[in-house]
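Project standup — Tuesday

K.O.: blocked on the structure for the chain from last sprint. Re-posting the sequence here as requested.
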Amino acid sequence: MLSSRYLHLHQALGLGPMWLKRGAKILPAATPNPPANAAPAPERPSENERSRFGRGQNERGNEHGASAHSQNGHGGFSDGLNQAAQANAAPPVPNPPAQTAPRGQARHSSAAENARAATMAAVGSSIGGYYKSRERDALRHTPPPKTPAPPAEADTPLSAAEHKAALSGRVAPARVLAVSICPAPEDLAAGHVFSGEDGALLGKMFAAAGLAENEVRRTSWLHSVEFTPAAARLEAAAARMQAERELCGAQAVVLLGRFAREPQYAAAIERAFAGTPLFTLPHPARILRLPKLKTEAWEELKRLRDMLQAV
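H.V.: unblocked you, prediction finished:
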């Protein structure tokens, strides 16, 4: 393999391509990669053009060879070397172009920006669609707001006669009606009032006054646990308490607890037990916590005993 410089050297010497081997191949000279904005390289002459150019050079060399050798014996050889040197000299390096982005790179940058914008738009739309679908699902599975039911009309309170008819056969005769304001929480589980230690103490207290267990009816003004109810609550249940007293035929009513001395409850108490002797005792549960109240309770029990003996 021969370098293309070999051909140029033969042409400069006026020898032509006859000295090359028939099977020789010309390789182009190694040149650095041209810059992106460099002018396109001129087309290299084909093999026929190079051979015609070599024959012309040879003919011109034969015409002027005699005069050149007569003037200077080595003039042709030195001229050929100069021409070869000029041919082999590196082309002048142009001034480096200004550092501007190539057109292709600018197109690539704008394409990348467009692709990025399209991707962000797609992501944004997908996220927006996700949240919209979540909102639709939430609305689909959320039950419609319930229309508030109209307030129930208050039950018309029963009269004492109506309560007597409802309680008939369930109230046994008794000499004394013992009334607390409400049941204790444990009484609700037991199903009757005074179901614990307070009930046992109450039985002993009435026994000290000369009363047997079946001679005392134990009840509560309210059926729910309300230690300080509104006065209207006692007013609403006053007719029922009146019916219980009339059904059992009690000769006296014993109010257990401090509610008997509260002025806001005085009207309800008067309506339920008008004309019946009233006695007030501390609640037995309070006596268990404060034993000093036994003295007060005993004085009231003696009054009750005296009244019952006098009847």
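K.O.: great, moving the ticket to review. The first strand starts at residue 2 and ends at 3. The beta strands are 2-3, 26-27, 176-180, 216-220, 252-256, 278-281.
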